[in-house]
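Feature request disguised as a bug: please show the residue count (86) next to Glutaredoxin in the output. Example input:
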Amino acid sequence: MAVKVEIYTWTTCPFCMRAKNLLKNKKVDFIEYNIDGDEIARNEMSKRANGKRSLPQIFINDVHIGGCDDIHALDRQGKLDQMLLA
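Example output, currently without the count:
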C-alpha cells in the first residue's frame, strides 16, 4: 500500500516550500492543497489539524504530523522514513 501524504500550502510560504522540498528530496509523492486566500479551505484544514491554522499542515495516512518544523524534526529523529514506508 502506498503512503498517502497531504500538505496544505500557500504559494509564497517559505515554510511550505521547505516542507515540500524535503518530501521531494525523499522522492515522496504528495497531494498539495494550495489554499491561498480560501478561508473555507483553511477552516477545513484547521478542523483536520486540531485547530491549527498556520501553514503548512501535513498529514501522512490521514494522521496529522504538524508543520514544517515538525516534519523536519521527525526526519532528524529518523522517524519520517519509517512513517513514509508504513
